[in-house]
TrEMBL record, chain A:
SUPFAM superfamilies: Protein kinase-like (PK-like). It comes from Streptomyces gossypii. It comes from the Bacteria. Pfam families: Pkinase (PF00069). Gene3D superfamilies: Transferase(Phosphotransferase) domain 1. This is Protein kinase domain-containing protein.
From TrEMBL, chain B:
Residues 17-225 form the VWFA domain. Pfam families: VWA (PF00092). This is VWA domain-containing protein. SMART domains: VWA. SUPFAM superfamilies: vWA-like.
Length: 349, 256
């Protein structure tokens, strides 16, 4: 397999292997000395609109708001660099897409930090401090892109990247909602478990910075709670479990009402959070969503060295000084060690 | 305590039961020079080997394999053998996806498709109720049937649409009551009109796919089941995913 794509200026690239496929597009490795990948979107709902969308994003790379977002190393965003289309087929049959930076060079998939099993395998040195760092980096990135007038819309683990230091990257920029001053390019993708309540259902509301802020809180909860989704749990009223979104719509959430759900005994303890962050989660899932910048500020406070302590028994157990003893040891005693370390058999899958 | 009692991986993830019904009738032994059943066996072995690197599926999906030819049997993953379904607790027939070492299947006999589907429905319902009872966050079981032929009765006579009506009705009921999602996949030679009777909105003809791609589609779409309240939405999602996949496969072939 070697698909060839061409840019508007006639530059050709050879796409080699398929490295991922998402809800709309498929990502290929690119044969190029720079670390690049290409995303092809076979069937956008409106081909012309999709082309314009990619062209505008590429043009906006030069605008000050975007230049700021793209500054720093490693680059936090897999911004579209060049629009391309497939060479064969031609005309209406060719497939559109774009070339972007290969995030795999600097980052790992976000789930490697979130899911306990993947963390053991890929980021065995990560601690709760890494999770706090990633949460702050994510909140800061989202606050900055909101300030730039961008809305992510489909914020979810599959679009996110993380490194060993807790730095965070974001891909799938072509699904964002933005405007070029004349035309609004709407965000319309939604992912179960990562959708604000007003966007769930057959006629969901369009995304805005507030719906992003809701999903940000979901992701921060997962980071700080060793992967636990905030709407995890079997309905306490004895009814059937249907889905995370159903729990969300019915207000079943441990962070808001501890009696609303039944969780496995081995779940991370609810009281492992600093009080201030616990209260922000209550707000986020209870109705008044904190802005991304507020999360960033509070997370910066919570992760300051003097606010953290290391467990005397297990050096990968890092927790807030507000808690008198180690929450991760508590969890380990109930059958699941979220941060077991490479040399420990506890918590092995 | 085994992982069966503990739940998959970390216990706080959702659980997605997937039942795969595999046609092992005589037609799967064709063509003689490269029998489809060999291709299926290779794909199963490879797929279940590679799934260990897919952390999301590993932590969520549990599988029951059912084969049907003149008999309907289920795979006991712990005993590593195909067993008659009767008399085996349904819980025992589901295993975490990364603990399944699939059997080497052989092809013979007729195609007891409807009997297999009825068996799968019962199995899925029992498992779903058991996990709800244990307060596991279980999603609706996904049922997939893969066939290259046409359903036959116990004597090997082809069944007509009327003979399938009862099973089709029970499938509809199961879907409407939120107990399962049913998808039919036809490969070379499958009797598409009859599959449509069983699964009017969820029959896919995937004869350009190899079995590995079909298994990818099965598990990726079973895992992406959203908060959709209606089975039709799930069927539409699966069809869209299959169409997109097909388009990209064709594109990649053109460039080969």
């Amino acid at each position: 397999m070697a698909i060839r794509v061409v840019s508007g200026r006639g530059h050709q690239w050879l796409l080699t292997e398929r490295i991922g496929s998402g809800s709309e597009g498929i990502v290929y490795a690119v044969d190029d000395p720079r670390a690049l990948v290409a995303k092809l979107v076979p069937d956008p709902p409106d081909r012309e609109a999709y082309r314009r969308r990619v062209e505008r994003l590429v043009r906006q790379r030069r605008e000050p708001r975007t230049v700021r977002l793209l500054s720093g190393s490693p680059t936090r965003l897999a911004w579209p660099m060049v629009p391309v289309r497939t060479v064969l087929g031609g005309g209406t049959d060719s497939i559109d897409g774009y070339v972007m930076r290969d995030m795999r060079l600097a980052y790992q998939p976000f789930t490697h930090l979130v899911s306990p099993a993947a963390r053991r395998a890929f980021l065995p040195g990560a601690t709760w401090a890494t999770a706090l760092a990633a949460a702050e980096a994510l909140a800061r990135l989202l606050a900055e892109l909101h300030a730039g007038g961008y809305v992510v819309g489909d914020l979810k683990p599959d679009n996110l990247w993380v490194d060993t230091q807790g730095r965070v990257g974001l891909a799938d920029v072509d699904s964002w909602q933005f405007t070029d001053g004349r035309e609004v390019f709407p965000g319309r993708m939604r992912t179960p478990g990562y959708t604000a309540p007003e966007r769930i259902g057959p006629v969901g509301a369009p995304p805005d910075s507030s719906s992003d802020d809701f999903v940000l809180a979901v992701l921060i909860h997962q980071l700080l709670m060793s992967g636990l989704h905030p709407f995890t749990g079997h309905p306490a009223d004895g009814g059937d479990y249907l889905s995370l979104d159903d729990n969300l719509l019915q207000g079943r959430c441990r962070a808001v009402d501890r009696t609303s759900v039944v969780l496995p005994r081995s779940a991370p303890p609810a009281d492992l959070l600093p009080r201030r962050l616990a209260s922000l989660f209550g707000d986020a899932f209870g109705g008044t969503r904190p802005h991304a910048w507020l999360w960033a500020e509070e997370l910066a406070v919570a992760r300051a060295a003097e606010r953290l302590t290391v467990c005397a028994v297990q050096k990968l157990h890092v927790y807030t000084i507000e808690r008198p003893w180690c929450p991760w040891c508590d969890q380990a005693e109930r059958g699941m060690d979220s941060y077991p370390g490479a040399d420990s058999a506890r918590g092995a899958p | 305590m085994s992982t069966y009692e503990m739940g998959l991986a970390d216990g706080c993830e959702e659980r997605q039961p997937v039942v795969i019904l595999l046609d092992t009738s005589a037609s799967m032994g064709r063509p003689a020079e490269s029998p489809r059943i060999d291709e299926l066996n290779d794909a199963l072995a490879r797929w279940f080997d590679e799934v260990r690197s897919l952390s999301r599926l590993r932590s969520r999906v549990e599988v029951a394999l059912i084969t049907f030819d003149s008999r309907v049997r289920a795979y006991d993953a712990r005993a590593e053998s195909l067993v008659p379904v009767e008399g085996v607790a349904s819980d025992r027939l589901f295993a975490p996806v990364d603990e399944v070492r699939p059997p080497r299947l052989t092809a013979s006999g007729v195609t007891r498709l409807t009997e297999a589907v009825e068996t799968a429905l019962t199995l899925a319902r029992e498992r779903y109720r058991a996990l709800q009872g244990q307060r596991v966050q279980v999603r609706r079981p996904f049922l997939w049937v893969l066939t290259d032929g046409a359903p036959s009765d116990a004597e090997g006579q082809p069944q007509d649409a009327a003979a399938l009506a009862g099973t089709a009705r029970r499938l509809r009921q199961g879907e409407e009551q939120g107990e399962c999602i049913f998808q039919a996949v036809g490969v070379r030679g499958a009797d598409l009109p009859l599959l449509h009777v069983l699964a009017p909105k969820s029959t896919l003809m995937l004869d350009s796919y190899d079995f590995g791609q079909i298994l990818d589609l099965v598990f990726q779409s079973s895992d992406q089941l959203g908060a959709v309240q209606h089975a039709d939405d799930a069927h539409r999602q699966v069809a869209e995913r299959a169409a997109r996949q097909k388009r990209m496969d064709e594109l990649e072939r053109k460039f080969r």
